[in-house]
Amino acid sequence: MNHLLYIPELFGVSIEVYFILIILGICTFFFWRWLFKKLIKDNKKRKIATWFTTIFVTPVIYVLIILAFFFSASYYPSHDFNQQKWASDSEKRYELSADLIKSKILIGKTKNEVTELLGEPDGWKQENYWTYYLGFKPSIMSIDPDYLDIEFKNDKVITVGQHES
Fold this sequence. Notes:
By secondary structure, the chain is of the alpha+beta class. The protein folds into two domains: 9-73, no CATH class; 83-164, Beta-lactamase Inhibitory Protein, Chain:B, domain 1 (2-Layer Sandwich). The protein has helices spanning 15-39, 43-73, 83-88, 94-103, 111-118; strands spanning 9-10, 13-14, 129-135, 146-153, 156-164. The chain has a three-stranded antiparallel beta sheet with strand order 3-4-5, covered by helices on one side. A two-stranded antiparallel sheet has the order 1-2. The relative contact order is 0.10.
């Protein structure tokens, strides 16, 4: 294979992971050594406790950092539906969509009432199925925008949902 940047692997793990673990390990080692100096008076027991704690805690810290990254990258606030916010920023409608769905504000409304509240559909507009663009919901793997789905029966909303295109 022809790679622009070759990153070697060791036991199926990229080499940079080992460097990160070494840096984390050094930091945690000095932290535990400092803490155990205050708590454990016996030098031999202190060294053993420092090494074992460092070896077991370092991978846990690494996993927690990765999880924090994924959580922060996919976090977005959820707000109560506000007609003015909906109309003014179509890229952040996903923040309002959960309330629209959960509160069932649209259920039972006519097509004219939905149009008054949300405006004309900017996605699909079929006789009994409309979609509204919600923007790109923050996510690690999200490459497609989300849409609000509204289904009508006898000119009244019967279901409201959301999907990623």
